[in-house]
Amino acid sequence: MEDYNMKLQQLLDPQIYKILPKDPTNKFLLKTKNLIKYSSIPDTIKPNVPLRPIVSTIGSPTYGLSKYLTRLLQPHIGQTTHHIKNSDHFIERMKNFKLEEEDILVSFDVISLFTKVPLMETLKYIKEIFPKDVSILFHHCLTTTYFQWNKQFFEQVDGVAMGNPLSPVIANFYMEKFESIALESAVLKPKIWYRYVDDTFVIWNHGLDSLHFFLKHLNNIHPNIQFTMECEINGRLPFLDILISKTDSLNLSFSVYRKPTHTDRYLNKLSNHHPCQKIGVIKTLFDRAKKKVSDPTHLDEELQHLRMSLQANGYSLLEINKVFSSKPKQLREKLPHLGMVFLPYIGGVTDKIGRILEKNNIKTIFIPTKKISEFLRSPKDPLDPLTASGVYKILCSCGLVYIGTTKRSFLTRRKEHMRFCRLNQPEKSAIAEHALNNLSHDVLFHDMKILSRTSNFYVRLQREAIEIYKHPNNINRQFDNICLNKTWHLVLKNVRVIDNNI
């Protein structure tokens, strides 16, 4: 943990991050709300195992807005001839390419692209294609990246955060502008330039000496954007998850590439997962081999490697070969699912429920009842539970309870209830009314119980209704207005009985 903290401290470049005096969440929440009204992981393959800065933005004030803006910007990228969607797309474009004797296979990688994207320049490009109100939203989402570490708050002042749904699209958008300038201004141009975000595959036909001048040219365009270069070794070059090889006939062949740190660990057969998920592991690996390996001899080698790896993960040779030899199923036209249900996987119980739901065209996704993360200590700073939103309970010394829900933090809502009591405003909340009408009672505001943490509006309402039903000794006003499906009543009645017996 000490080594982890030391490496993370080294990442906090003052040119990219600045320390904030306090938590800015409330300020950004207010700003996000006003703007909407106005606008209508460790890198194990590198020396010393450096860390990649990840800022998880799930549940942050701008998370939903960032996802919306991602959808707006997505159609504006990927239209150039240099763009590739994934390794399958790359193979499709290169499988019939004929090399010349002097061609050199090269890859270029941008160093820490996300944190180096020049924000102001990128926003200038965005203004050229979007109206002012939308551009303001982009500016807001990209300049309100903050996080907590070691009990301090930091704000990212340049670049984009890994963990923000908008970041990959923004990085791609900027790199398209960058590569256009780089290729147009290059004295000697590559024969092929295909880029996937920060990884670029190049075929260079001007000799090795001039290749180093081209690298220097790329690194002189913008001080933030610096490339590293890797040349082919013995006619072979890894790119994304494939290994590209030159053939004697000057064609290219492809095979699956595994990094030196790859362990061949997959979902173990003994793991408590639904059988279809385990078969899915075998099928996914088999399909990847079929798509990415171009030479039949290499395909046999890859399948043999997979057999050994899967057997080491507990799968029998019989079930492996059964998947490998199965014929592709003919695609049948399927009706869209009526809904989706997530169920904990309990063998012999929830899988039967899943089959019933599937017959009624409801998709079932099984999740494990326990996760490894539950047994490991998180390196992240623990968040104060009172900073979350959701459903809560406040008790009174008389035995009655108040069930409430809040879209803001529990702490903010608790302060409001206490202020209503202090300012003699019983109409503001039921708990304030109860406290003011019963001055001898002791309302335990500081012993607020968190019943559920969620930012989803409908989930909060449903959970509040359930908790009110579970607590008949409540002092809530709005229970008659909350519709709780009658299916819940029998279940909740039994829950009440269990709670009373404990």
Automatic annotation (TrEMBL):
This protein's name: Reverse transcriptase domain-containing protein
Phylogenetic classification of the source organism: Eukaryota, Metazoa, Ecdysozoa, Arthropoda, Hexapoda
InterPro entries from the UniProt entry: DNA/RNA_pol_sf, HTH_animal, RT_dom
GO biological process: DNA biosynthetic process
UniProt domain Reverse transcriptase: residue ranges: 25-256
A Pfam family recorded for this sequence: HTH_animal
Domain of life from the UniProt record: Eukaryota
